[in-house]
Write a structure and sequence with these properties.
The complex is a heterodimer.
Chain A (H helix, E strand, L loop, with lengths): L10 H13 L3 H4 L3 H23 L4 H38 L4 E6 L2 E6 L8 E5 L8 E5 L1 E5 L1 H4 L5 E4 L6 E2 L4 E2 L3 E6 L7 H10 L7 H35 L9 H11 L2 H20 L2 E3 L2 H8 L3 E5 L5 E12 L5 H12 L5 H14 L11 E4 L7 E7 L5 E9 H10 L6 H12 L3 E7 L2 E12 L3 H10 L3 E5 L4 H11 L3 E3 L4 H13 L4 E5 L5 H6 L2 E5 L4 H6 L2 E3 L6 H38 L24 H25 L8 H33 L5
Parallel strand pairs in A: 11-18, 11-20, 18-19, 20-21, 21-22
Antiparallel strand pairs in A: 1-2, 1-3, 3-9, 4-7, 4-9, 5-6, 5-8, 10-22, 12-17, 13-14, 14-15, 15-16, 16-17
Helix pairs in contact in A: 1-4, 3-4, 3-8, 4-6, 4-8, 4-9, 4-21, 7-8, 8-20, 8-21, 9-20, 9-21, 10-20, 11-12, 20-21, 20-22, 21-22
Chain B lengths: L2 H29 L7 H15 L9 H24 L16 H12 L9 H4 L2 H31 L9 H27 L9 E4 L5 E4 L5 H9 L20 H25 L3 H33 L14 H14 L14 H12 L10 H20 L5 E2 L2 E2 L2 H27 L1 H4 L6 H16 L14 H30 L16 H35 L6
Antiparallel strand pairs in B: 1-2, 3-4
Helix pairs in contact in B: 1-9, 2-7, 3-4, 3-6, 3-17, 4-17, 6-7, 6-8, 6-17, 7-8, 9-10, 9-11, 10-11, 10-12, 10-18, 11-12, 12-16, 12-18, 13-14, 13-18, 14-16, 14-17, 16-17, 16-18
Chain lengths: ~700, ~575
């Protein structure tokens, strides 16, 4: 499902889309888009005019070609939409296959009976054992099992689902591969997660997003004013012709006026608008994120504040040993050796990191310890330490090494009448201040030093936050740590702010406060206690591993359960708007050249005398061959540009994390200035081509 | 063109810019109800007006209440102006014994002065009594300017306020603007004009015998008091038919310079007032720069066309036909561009006599929607439609829901901005199309060909943009033109005014977010460039076909040496 694994186009998709493009000529479909509807009406009018003149003279080659290209304009726009939809359809198809009808084992008053999965409704209890397909979305109420969720995530490794806690949600259509689960169904039939996904991917229920509605309004307004400009032009031309004593009727015809109109109305953006929207959702799905609405994607592009969990998002989540700090009179090497020994049987990530650090610093190889040589003392909550007792040959304890919380070790030393080295107090405070956790090591009761454990910030995350800052997005870290530790990690990771000792209430309060200030807030979460905050946030991304409550509360689900995904979601949201804006600018900028092509052509003969050429002939600055070739070239350019821009519409305009003014400058240069220049070149080239091919007089 | 012409333009623009901050700051204080140095002098008048009207100035309105207040106030004004004219023969101050005004003409004039258009289908000295001039027209000159400013104030408040539905009290805005700004300025300016020789009396026409021995009636009257507010309030309706080309309206080069300055002075200062009200002077200066740049560009085209293009054809001579020798070509071009960017509509030369491109430029200025400084108040709220549109485009291009002053620009604002932006243009095109296809429209033309077309296009352009200047030549005092132009003026005024108030209401209710690196700045050259492009491109795309068949064609024919009169 990776974005780059799949080719953007394949032959079958293109063929299917071509067929689909014709089906979409249905006026009811076209009526949804004012710009393309006007184009369709124009194509029909031109065709009628062409057929009429078919009876009254020689074959109307010019009118025929104009009609043809106007139909192409509509078809190309339909094609763009069909291609965008087609890319989602394949995905929907594979999902639909996973939604096969299975027999559910319904628990009814303690007894089990088999019913088709389509009859299972909200509140029912069902049982699933190894090999069963889970019949509907639900919450595990009993048991623990591994579940294969590859049908929805594409990830083949099974995941653990268990009752209680944050991993209790199961999705209909996934398969239990070990053990047994009792599940309370939480979705009505036909409204399951997969059903909703299919609908979203297919774009069938795609509703226009707020910005899209506003943009359609702009496009409709422009279409209306151009309709007026062109229809009044007919009357102006009649007056001018009458006044000059000339008949302009043979040039200012219906096909020509329709051509002018279609060239002026923003067909480029109008034709590609829905493709851009569908492709935006598709890009999200390709990154394994399911948005519950297009509105959420658009909102993602507007995010001002990002709330991120510390653990797993900003830090690796495991504390690692980074330094040995020996007590006076102890060498660092001796401390390292003792620490390594004490950690040999400690399988926690912390323990392993101590072994690794000792190896790295002093090339100490981890020894194999024979049970007769030593006994391992596991960590217990009561003692708050762990360690190892080395036995001498006679079986007596020769060395007793303990590592643990500073308080516990200090107490133990105190009992033995030994002092906690004063020199270590400073180091202890230093570690705490820097956000680390100190671990004390004692040998035979005597404190020999400290190990600095540190919450490791993920590589590259600081740069990520810097990018976000450039885009104007502030990051806030949420952590259960105390403020001191939180501040240190916040500084190291480069987040803008943090909430220490966070509770569900404090998260919610913070989101509300930011929203009061007019900020749009996004957050990720997985636990049930995140649900209120996820619901309050403007964009709430839930991990797929999260609870059902959390999944319901958020407006997006990340199937990969990758908390940094939010950053990509923001980018996709921005890219979606940028693509719309840039193509709108391009579309309108194109009109300048089209005027220069068509207006001189329309009135080229005005006040033409034997001595003088037409009065307005100097306006033909492109030097187009003839009025007919000029008009036809503009219409062809207008149609072809839609096809040429389909890849851009589907891919989105290039996005780089930059400040708004840098982005604006680049897009205006490319799509604004480029949009003015490109059609001058394009129309001239087409003019040369069709003249050479003798397609026009 | 010589160096004196350039100095003249530079002095004019320089003085305009210099006057802007003090005047703008003063108005901001007045409109926010703060004390100014005029409060002790004129405070009684403000309070008296409230008491007479039974108005509590502290009670604010939502946008609908505000809009209703504007509409009701204007309906009353319309009725008063209409009835004074149709009954003027029975009213005092009519030394020339002029009869009642024909009803279509009276309606046209009433709409015209109510909408701050001041289109004049009639000829002042032979149609209206002094009573009509003073109590109907001069009063409306003040009021139509004041309520335009009031609507702008409501919009500025909508933009700067947060999470409220109140946008100010219309009556308070109207009264403060009239009492503290328009009245004192007009009073001073009227005295200055009298000192230059503008007439101000109640005398009947004076019969004189000319050198050739012919009898001529010299019209007189209370002109200075009306001309002052006509220039200051972007009204433009002359006391005499010849407007400021008439020696009794505009006798000297100094009076000409001051009258020109008065055209742009208040609209320009209001941009600064806007900056203070929204607490973003930088953005206001950007708008100011855009306005100044577009006006200068148009002036450059007009000057080129008048001096250089003509010089090539006429052996080094400028086009003096239809222009006043005491002002010359350059002063006529400055005036023509200033009066058409600013919705004023007064003239000191006949626009019909401008060279084709200069006339076209005057028309194009109006096509832009009278937003380059524009009418008092209406220029700023019209400009804000374009600003919102630019913000919308730019917002999309940077990948963010568009924001203006921290407020999200959504469907509602865009819808209203589109109506305000394209509505006047639509009215201009429809009007001209109707006129050029009906005998009633064509029979009033004095020229044929492109010039005749320009006459019609100009009339509806001027009406829909609420400018009021005329291309002359066209006989507009016919029932057809009186009624269609009256409709166009009315629609042109409210198709902008009501959307502006709707936007004010919608924006006032929104929360405002502080700007971040993700929001693009509306205070920089990038925004200025984009805004200029949007303004020009919208104007060009809507009007190119029409302009090509009018001024452009005429220019091309002139260059070829073909004249069609």
């Amino acid at each position: 499902m990776e974005d780059n694994k799949k080719p953007t186009f394949d032959r079958k998709l293109l063929l299917d889309s071509a067929v689909e493009a014709f089906k979409k000529l249905d006026p009811r479909v076209q009526a949804r888009n004012p710009v393309m509807f006007v184009t369709l009406v124009g194509a029909v009018l031109t065709t009628v005019a062409m057929v009429q003149s078919l009876y009254s003279g020689p074959f109307p080659l010019f009118e025929f070609q104009i009609s043809l290209w106007l139909w192409f304009t509509v078809l190309f726009a339909n094609f763009a939409e069909a291609v965008a939809e087609g890319r989602g359809k394949a995905q929907a198809e594979s999902l639909r296959r996973s939604r096969v009808e299975v027999m559910a084992r319904l628990l009814d008053k303690g007894s089990e009976r088999k019913v088709p999965s389509s009859e299972v409704t909200k509140g029912d209890m069902v049982v699933c054992e190894a090999g069963d397909i889970i019949p509907a979305d639900g919450e595990v109420t009993e048991g623990i099992a591994s579940v294969d969720e590859s049908a929805i995530t594409g990830e083949s490794a099974p995941v653990i689902r268990e009752s209680g806690g944050d991993r209790s949600a199961v999705t209909g259509g996934t398969r239990v591969i070990s053990d047994r689960l009792v599940i309370r169904v939480t979705a009505e039939p036909g409204k399951s997660f997969i059903d909703r996904m299919i609908v979203l991917i297919e774009g069938a229920s795609r509703q226009k997003t707020p910005n899209e509605i506003a943009l359609v309004m702009v496009l409709a307004g422009l279409t209306l004013i151009f309709l007026l400009a062109v229809s009044t032009l007919k009357l102006f031309a009649d007056y001018t012709g009458a006044s000059a004593g000339q008949d302009l009727g043979n040039l200012v015809t219906v096909p020509v006026l329709v051509s002018l109109l279609v060239c002026l109305i923003p067909t480029t953006i109008g034709g590609l608008l829905s493709a851009i929207g569908i492709a935006g959702m598709d890009r999200l799905i390709r990154r394994n994120v399911i948005a519950k609405s297009g509105r959420a994607v658009e909102a993602a592009g507007d995010i001002d504040v990002l709330l991120l969990d510390k653990t797993g998002t900003i830090t690796l989540g495991n504390r690692m040993a980074t330094a040995f700090l020996p007590a006076p009179g102890v060498t660092e090497e001796a401390l390292a050796e003792a620490s390594q020994l004490a950690s040999l049987s400690d399988e926690t990530p912390e323990g392993r990191s101590i072994v690794v650090l000792a190896k790295k610093r002093f090339e100490m190889r981890a020894r194999e310890l024979h049970p007769a040589e030593a006994s391992f003392v596991p960590f217990s909550a009561a003692t708050q330490m762990s360690g190892l007792d080395m036995k001498s040959a006679d079986g007596k304890i020769a060395r007793s090494i303990r590592k643990g919380a500073v308080g516990a070790i200090r107490e133990q030393a105190g009992k033995a009448g030994l002092e906690f080295p004063a020199a270590l107090e400073g180091a202890h405070q230093e570690i705490s201040r820097s956000g680390g956790t100190p671990l004390a090591v004692a040998e035979n009761g005597k404190v020999i030093g400290l190990i600095h454990l540190k919450d490791m910030v993920k590589g590259g995350i600081k740069e990520r936050f810097a990018e976000l800052r450039k885009m104007g997005i502030r990051t806030i870290m949420i952590t259960g740590d105390n403020p001191l530790t939180a501040a240190a990690i916040a500084a190291e990771a480069g987040v803008d702010d943090f909430i220490a000792q966070a509770t569900p209430e404090s998260k919610l309060a913070r989101i509300r406060r930011e929203q009061e200030l007019g900020q749009l807030v996004a957050m990720t979460g997985d636990g049930t206690n995140d649900a209120p905050a996820l619901a309050q946030a403007d964009v709430g991304v839930t991990m797929n591993t999260g609870t059902q409550a959390a999944r319901e509360a958020g407006n997006m689900v990340d199937l990969d359960s990758n908390p940094t995904k939010l950053i990509e979601i923001v980018e996709i949201g921005k890219q979606l708007l940028m693509t719309r804006g840039s193509l709108t600018t391009f579309s309108i900028a194109n009109d300048v050249a089209k005027y220069f092509a068509i207006i001189p052509a329309l009135f080229a003969t005005l006040y033409m005398t034997k001595e003088h050429g037409g009065a307005l002939a100097p306006l033909n600055i492109m030097g187009l061959h003839s009025p007919e070739s000029a008009i036809l070239s503009a219409v062809i350019f207008n149609a072809i540009i839609i096809v040429l821009l389909i890849p851009l519409a589907l891919r989105g305009v290039a996005y780089r994390p930059e400040s708004a003014s840098a982005v604006l400058r680049r897009n205006i240069l490319i799509y604004g200035v480029g949009g003015i220049i490109a059609p001058f070149i394009g129309i001239k080239l087409i003019d040369l081509l069709i003249t050479a091919l003798r397609l026009v007089r | 063109m010589n160096v004196y012409d350039i100095i003249q333009v530079a002095v004019f623009a320089g003085l305009l810019v210099l006057l802007t901050p003090p005047l703008g700051a003063f108005m901001a204080r007045v409109f926010e109800g703060e004390r100014t140095f005029l409060s002790p002098v004129l405070g009684w008048l403000e309070r008296l007006t409230y008491r007479l009207g039974g108005v509590d100035p502290a009670k604010e309105m939502n946008w609908k209440e505000y809009a209703w207040a504007v509409i009701i106030f204007n309906l009353l004004g319309l009725a008063v102006v209409f009835f004074i004219q149709v009954f003027q023969a029975h009213l005092p101050l009519n030394p020339n014994h002029l009869g009642n005004v024909e009803w279509t003409s009276a309606l046209n004039t009433a709409v015209s002065f109510m909408t701050n258009t001041n289109w004049q289908g009639y000829s002042g000295e032979t149609t209206l009594s002094f009573f009509s001039q003073m109590l109907a027209l001069a009063v409306q000159n003040f009021l139509s300017a004041a309520y335009g400013i009031a609507v702008f104030l409501a919009l500025a408040r909508g933009i700067s306020r947060k999470s409220t539905d109140l946008i100010g009290n219309f009556w308070a805005d109207l009264v403060r603007c009239t009492v503290y700004v328009l009245l004192p300025l007009a009073l001073i300016f009227a005295f200055v004009l009298v000192s230059q020789g503008v007439v101000q009396n109640f005398s009947a026409n004076r019969e004189i015998t000319t050198l050739e021995g012919a009898k001529q009636a010299i019209p007189l009257g209370p002109a200075a008091s009306q001309i002052a507010i006509k220039q200051l309030g972007t009204n433009g309706g002359g006391f005499f038919n010849a407007n400021s080309a008439h020696p009794f309206e505009n006798p000297t080069p100094l009076s000409n310079f001051l009258e020109m300055l008065a055209i742009l002075m208040l609209p320009a200062a209001l941009v600064y007032t806007y900056g203070i009200m929204i607490k973003d002077k930088k953005h206001a200066w950007v708008l100011y720069a855009v306005m100044l740049a577009i006006w200068s560009g148009g002036l450059a085209v007009a000057l080129y066309s008048e001096h250089d293009a003509a010089a090539r054809l006429f052996h080094g001579m400028s086009l003096m036909e239809g222009k006043e020798t005491r002002f010359g070509v350059t002063n006529s071009a400055i005036w023509a561009t200033a009066t058409t960017v600013a919705s004023n509509g007064s003239v000191n030369a006949m626009h019909s006599s401008l060279s084709p491109l200069a006339g076209g430029m005057a028309m194009f200025n109006m096509h832009l929607g009278e937003i380059i400084f524009g009418g008092v108040g209406s220029g700023m709220y019209g400009m804000l439609f374009f600003v919102l549109m630019t913000v919308f485009l730019a917002g999309l291009m940077v990948g963010r829901t568009p924001e203006y002053m921290g407020k999200k620009i959504e469907k509602r604002e865009i819808q209203m901005a589109m109506i305000g932006m394209l509505g006047p243009g639509a009215l201009m095109l429809i009007g001209a199309a109707v006129a050029c296809s009906l005998p009633a429209g064509l029979s009033s033309l004095s020229a044929k060909g492109p010039h005749g077309f320009s006459e019609m296009l100009y009339a509806y352009t001027s009406a829909a943009a609420n400018n009021g200047s005329a291309f002359a030549g066209l006989n507009a005092n016919t029932p057809f033109y009186n009624l269609t132009l009256a409709f166009t003026m009315l629609a042109g005024r409210f198709v902008c005014l009501l959307p502006a108030l709707a936007i004010a209401g919608s924006l006032a209710g929104k929360k405002s977010a502080p700007p971040s690196a993700g929001t693009f700045s509306t205070g920089g050259s990038m925004f200025a460039l984009l805004l200029t492009s949007v303004i020009i491109i919208v104007g060009v795309l809507t009007f190119v076909p029409a302009l090509v068949l009018g001024p452009v064609l005429e220019h091309m024919l002139m260059v070829k040496g073909m004249f069609l009169f």
